[in-house]
Amino acid sequence: MMSQTSPFRSGSLGKSISGPVLGASALASTLLFSSLSLWAGTPRVSFVYPAGGQRGAEIEVVFRGTNLADARDVLFDAPGFRVSPVKSENGQFTAKVFVPADADLGEHRCRVITHSGVADLRTFMVSPFPMVEESKTKATAEAPQVIPPNTTVFGKTPSDELDHYAVELKKGQHLSIEVAGLQLHTQNPYDPEVLILKPDGSQLALV
User: Fold this and answer.
1) Residue 193 and residue 17: Cα distance in Å, rounded?
2) Who's near 109: CB < 8 A, 6+ residues apart?
């Protein structure tokens, strides 16, 4: 599962103070207030969904965190990524991200850019396969979500939640599964495991 500067405006004092010594004091106070104001407004991103996209395709991505009301762009670590802002709110920035067809597969780095600063570094995975979101109804072992081969599934697995998927294979076909967990660098370590079952429910492999 695959569960990114502009000038700062300084604050101003409420009244003017004359005289060389007092003037220096006023300047120091202005810089102090400005520093506190900038620190309080530093943008942070703690959650990206989905944290990836397919080569040569566009996908809508949600960046959640704090102080994102003035978000305007996402900076990636490689050329060719195009970002079209959709909506900016204090705790969320939504944008459409186009992944270049020649982008390197695997991990990329990105940062949300706001008018007041740059957010922390987040991971964005590039896949060669179409992106499919997990079922909203949460598939069960008795009714798993059917996934075609060569597909990237993304979703959310809070706590110890289990997701169930089914892949139809012909005799002699090979099945290769990769799970992006720790690579996503989420707030809490996320290291999922995959249990592969036979049609009769018996265990075939544990990854």
Assistant:
1) 65
2) 4, 76, 77, 121, 122, 123, 124
pLDDT in tens, 14-70: 333 333 333 333 333 333 333 344 444 789 998 899 999 999 999 999 999 999 999
How crowded is residue 39: how many other Cβ atoms within 10 Å of its Cβ? 9
**Pairing relationship of beta strands 106-114 and 117-118 according to DSSP bridges:** antiparallel
Tokens of 140: 């069960």
> Strand pairing partners for 124?
108
Q: Which two tokens stand for residue 9?
A: 């405006």
Q: pTM score, two decimals?
A: 0.73
The residue type at 168: E
Q: Which residue has the tokens 């704090």?
A: 66
114 neighbors 123 (Cβ within 8 angstroms): no
Query: Tens of pLDDT along 103-159?
Result: 999 999 999 999 989 999 999 999 999 999 998 776 788 889 999 999 999 988 777
Instruction: Give CA–CA dist 38/201, Å, rounded.
Output: 56
Residue 28, phi-psi category: left (phi > 0), alpha (psi -120 to 50), beta (remainder): alpha
Tokens for 166, please give them: 């089914």
128: helix, strand or coil:
coil
DSSP 121: P
Beta bridge mates, 114: 71, 117
